Amino acid sequence: MGVKPDYWIVQMVGEHQMIDPFEESQVGQGTISYGVSSYGYDMRLDRKFLVYRGGAGLVDPKRTGEMPFDEIEGDDCIIPAGSFVLARSLEYFRIPRSVLTLCTGKSTYARCGLIVNVTPFEPEWEGFVTISISNTSPSPVKVYAGEGIAQVIFLGADDLCRTSYADRKGKYQAQEEIVRAKVSGDEEERNG
C-alpha cells in the first residue's frame, strides 16, 4: 500500500470527480493553506458548525441526539476552551475502491491546541466529511470557514477489497450535512 502523489490526485479528480470543489494548487497566501500538497489534499471547512455546550452530564455515543449543540453558520467559529465542535468539509469526496485515506490536522491549528479528528475514508465511501475539532487549550480558539483544516492522505491498496463501504451500505454514505454518531440499528438511524 503506497501513498499517492499530487499528480495522481489531480488525475483522479479529472477522471472520477474524487474531490469537488477542487483546488489544484496549494493556496496559502494570507490564509490557512488548502489544496493539493505533495502527497495529499488539504481540505477546507464549510460555514456550518455544531458547537458542543458541555456540562450536561455523561456523553453517550449511543445517544448523541441528546447532546446539547448550538448550530451556527458563519465565516468563523469560536471553540470554547475544553470543548469541541462538529463541522463539515467544504469538499465532497468520492473515494475509489482501491483507496483508503487517513487524515491529520493542520499544524497551524495544532500549535493553537486544537486536535482535528477525522476517521478514515473507506473504499467507495463518498460524502461531505464530518470533522470533530477539539480545543485542548485553556482559551477559546477561532477556526475559519473556507480555509484548510486537515490533510487527507490517499493510500493505494495492492489488491481490491472484497467488500467496500458502498457494498455494505455504510451508515455514513453520501452524507450531506454534519452527521452525529450513529450506532447500527439505533432509533436515530431507523428514523432517517
Features:
192 residues, mainly beta, Deoxyuridine 5'-Triphosphate Nucleotidohydrolase, Chain A, ten-stranded antiparallel β-sheet, two-stranded antiparallel sheet, 3 helices, 12 strands, 10% helix, globular, disordered C terminus
If you had to describe this structure to a student in words, what would you say it looks like?
The chain is mainly β and 192 residues long. It has a single domain (2-181), classed as Deoxyuridine 5'-Triphosphate Nucleotidohydrolase, Chain A, CATH 2.70.40.10. Helices cover 10% and strands 39% of the residues. The strands form two sheets. Strands 1, 2, 3, 4, 5, 7, 8, 9, 10 and 12 form a ten-stranded antiparallel β-sheet that branches. The protein has a two-stranded antiparallel sheet with strand order 6-11. A hairpin with a 2-residue loop joins β3 and β4 (40-52). The termini are far apart.
Low-confidence stretches: 187-192
Secondary-structure element order, N to C? EHEEEEEEEHEEEEH
What's the Cα radius of gyration?
17 Å
Distance between the termini: 36 Å
- CATH fold type: Deoxyuridine 5'-Triphosphate Nucleotidohydrolase, Chain A
Largest sheet: 10 strands, antiparallel
The second-level CATH architecture is Distorted Sandwich
Mean pLDDT: 92
Oligomeric assembly: single chain
Structurally, how many domains make up the residues?
1
What's the CATH superfamily, by name? Answer: Deoxyuridine triphosphatase (dUTPase)
Q: How much helical structure, as a percent, in the residues?
A: under 10%
**Strand tally:** 12
Supply the helix-strand structural class.
Answer: mainly beta
Shape: globular
